[in-house]
Design brief:
about 65% helix, 6 strands, single chain, about 290 residues, mainly alpha
């Protein structure tokens, strides 16, 4: 049993940001599921889970401010988490071809926060939802995952992926998901669909700004860097190295960055072979000729 535990811990510790997000979501789902079963066996109340869900009511949110983060790691059933994690894995891999691990963490949380905010605004603004504000809650990583899907489709809309044995451009997948969510905002899962739209908006803004050399998740990334530093103080100090712009980073981050730069150049060269030089964006041309 200890071997299994140690193996899981080791894989989590050595895994990339995508692996960690999937591990955390899965672990929380398992723990909550076990607790709910135990509570039910003793005829107890499961109302405690509301403290992890994001409420539509503003006053409830003031009492549980952490819910804007916790809700995106709570799932209702196995299908719910399975769909989100499969989508996260597939599009997370694509996202990391263009952006860094820090960017993935940043867009995940940005999408989740944007989805929650949009949900609360809509439920407190539109008359259709006024009778559901006090009892309304939302859970799931769907908004965060939607942000990643839309971010990828905004950065490289012509990227072709294999979906059910059919080649499809990622932009059509994103458009289909957004349209389906919009159509369902008056349905039974209105809250969930609204969060999808909020996450999609965050993903679009990230992709749009990323193409112009801006990163709107820098604030979130900096916050998590500070949190990580607090937890790492008790461990062996990281070995630091200096590189061109005089910033400091760990050997792992340095090697990862250089690998991503190399992979990105390879991707650009492949794109030239397939579609010609004119198919490159201005940012891709800049990367090609400024490679060190």
């Amino acid at each position: 049993m200890n071997n299994i535990k140690n193996e899981i811990i080791e894989k989590f510790r050595n895994g990339d940001a995508l692996t960690k997000l999937i591990f955390i979501n899965s672990a929380i789902f398992i723990v909550i599921s076990i607790l709910l079963v135990v509570v039910k066996l003793f005829n107890g109340s499961a109302n405690w889970i509301h403290y992890l869900m994001f409420p539509a009511d503003i006053y409830k949110f003031i009492v549980t401010p952490w819910s804007i983060i916790s809700y995106m790691f709570v799932h209702s059933d196995l299908f719910h988490i399975l769909f989100n994690m499969v989508t996260l894995f597939y599009f997370g891999k694509l996202f990391l071809e263009y952006c860094t691990q820090k960017d993935l963490i940043g867009i995940y949380f940005l999408g989740g926060i944007a989805g929650a905010a949009f949900y609360m605004i809509c439920y407190n603004f539109f008359p259709l939802y006024e009778n559901y504000v006090y009892s309304g809650y939302v859970i799931g990583a769907s908004a965060a995952v939607m942000a990643i899907v839309v971010a990828v489709s905004t950065i490289d809309p012509e990227r072709i992926v294999r979906l059910f044995f059919i080649d499809v451009k990622v932009k059509w997948i994103a458009i289909a998901l957004v349209l389906l969510s919009f159509i369902e905002i008056a349905g039974n899962n209105a809250g969930g669909e609204i969060t999808h739209l909020g996450g999609a908006l965050a993903g679009f803004l990230f992709g749009y700004q990323f193409q112009r050399g801006n990163n709107i998740t820098k604030g979130i990334s900096s916050l998590f860097d500070k949190i990580a530093d607090l937890f790492s103080r008790s461990r062996k100090p990281k070995i630091k190295v200096k590189y061109g712009d005089s910033k400091r980073e760990s050997d792992y981050d340095y090697n990862y960055r250089k690998k991503k730069e190399s992979d990105n150049i390879d991707r650009i060269l492949d794109k030239i072979k397939q579609h010609g030089y004119d198919s490159l964006s201005s940012d891709e041309k800049k990367q090609l000729f400024t490679k060190k």
